[in-house]
Amino acid sequence: MLFQRIMTRHLHNPMPLPPLHPDFTCLVTGCTNGIGREIARQLAEAGAHVVMAVRNTTRANVLIEKWQCDWSKMSLPLNIEVMELNLLSLDSVARFAEAWNARSVPLHVLINNAGIFSIGEPQKISKDGFEEHMQVNHLAPALLSILLLPSLIRGSPSRIVNVSSTIHHVGFVDPEDMNVSTGKRKYTNLAGYSGSKLAQVMFSSILNKKLPSKAGISVVCVSPGVVQTNFARDLSKIVQIVTRLFPYYKFSPEEGARSALFAATDTQISEFCKKLESDDWPVCAFISHECRPTNPSEEAHNLETSYNVWEKTMEMIGLPSDTVQKLIEGQQVKCRYGSHQD
Ligand SMILES: NC(=O)c1ccc[n+]([C@@H]2O[C@H](COP(=O)([O-])OP(=O)(O)OC[C@H]3O[C@@H](n4cnc5c(N)ncnc54)[C@H](OP(=O)(O)O)[C@@H]3O)[C@@H](O)[C@H]2O)c1
Prior knowledge:
The protein is an alpha/beta fold and 342 residues long. The chain has 13 helices and seven strands. β1, α2 and β2 form a beta-alpha-beta unit. NADP nicotinamide-adenine-dinucleotide phosphate binds next to α2. It holds the Pfam family adh_short.
């Protein structure tokens, strides 16, 4: 945190984006606040068709009106729409993907940004039966990414950008205890959050390996840096006051959005992902808050655990483990969630 501003002196703020075509469709989750709100606004102002996938649709519509007013100096209306998505319900995720895929239109970029870090709260289990950090930060985005593959193939070359965190470096995932509920390990909010972010990186690495290059889909994880958002709203008052004393060192949401915007639009990302794949590199591309390729944690390089996390995740999200292959071949898959349930 102390050095992030110095290390990013080379970056402009806001990140200059290339002009984007109105048919270039970017779906951003959790964009009514924080980093996601900046990602959605900046992609729309660059000309893209932006889909705000949010749990509070009213707030999203109010934001669009505001952005449109602020943007009225330009003659073109912003090309943004809102769709409801609640990551605490895997049914909501599956229904969202069904609704989107039913349009039979291309999707070029999926940005899995929404996330939670419930500091100081007791361990919470979702109605689907999963620890909430694991569900919101990993399982639900994993289900969304897989179910949207048909649309991403249509939009190829396309990208899945997962907003990760450097905190995954202190994370640990036991594929046999993804909910941290067996008592083998003590649950803390930090263990829940960091484990979910590590699981996301591991799953992304295996997804990247399972996607053949002909599918034309790149999978990238990004770290936004330490960003002043609502994210740490549950921190104790004292810690909040202390962090507010050092505003210089924290990124603004605009600055925190840069790594995701870079991963979504930089022209060299696909080539970089292909190179990692051809080198049989164990992890997917990881872009730092400096908008440079970096290495995820040592644990993320553990391929055996990553494959186990993949298998366990597929089981938890109710998909057969050969789903990716089937979707690539244009076959239908059955999901435990959504309207086409088993
Ligand atoms: N801030 C940081 O320092 C930091 C550092 C590293 C990584 N990150 C990552 O950056 C991402 C964005 O975080 P942020 O800092 O911008 O936090 P934020 O201001 O709290 O925004 C989080 C967004 O996620 C949405 N969300 C939460 N639960 C959801 C659910 N069940 N279904 C759908 N959407 C949901 C929120 O929706 P509402 O608007 O309805 O609440 C909000 O729009 C997260 O993945 C986080 O892990 C943040």
